[in-house]
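User: Batch of two.

Assistant: Item 1 of 2:
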Amino acid sequence: MFDVGFSEMLMVGLVGLLVLGPERLPKLAREAALWLGKARSLLHDAKAEIKRELDLEELKELRALNESMQLPRIDPLALLQESASQTESAETIGRPAPASSGASHG
């Protein structure tokens, strides 16, 4: 976020020590750290909430797309049964009719 190195932090600390004095500087530094922590927490929570909302919106779009496609539901058992019945029909059609056993020889 901010590119602050050690030398910059040292300079801020020295100026703060000169301006505020040694009695008020530690208290002010603790308060600044507290506020900075609260700001970071607030920023983190806001980012998480935005991410949740975007993910929810994307999920809604995907569901709408899925519903609009209206893909047929496939039943594997029904497919197997249909395939087996078609195989039986093809075998029955290819066979000659069985001879009748009641024919008289004469």
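Item 2 of 2:
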Amino acid sequence: MRPQEVDVNDIDQIIEQLGPCARVYWNMETCIDENNRVWNNCQNEVAQLKKCWEEQESLGLRTPQSDRKMMMELKKLKKSLN
């Protein structure tokens, strides 16, 4: 399947499998990309990601390794769509 033919439902399913903060991270990255990497325009998304990570950390579910793995997988997914 070529990247242009990737079904949006497939993308959503992949993102959801990467953990509870993956969707929030994806939304933040999308906002930043759409705003030419200007973080100031995406403060709401950044705050949502921080909140998600803090919630996961308070539950003992967040580690630097899991964050890196999730971010790497999302970057691969995004690259496959370009």
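Residues 3-81 form one domain.
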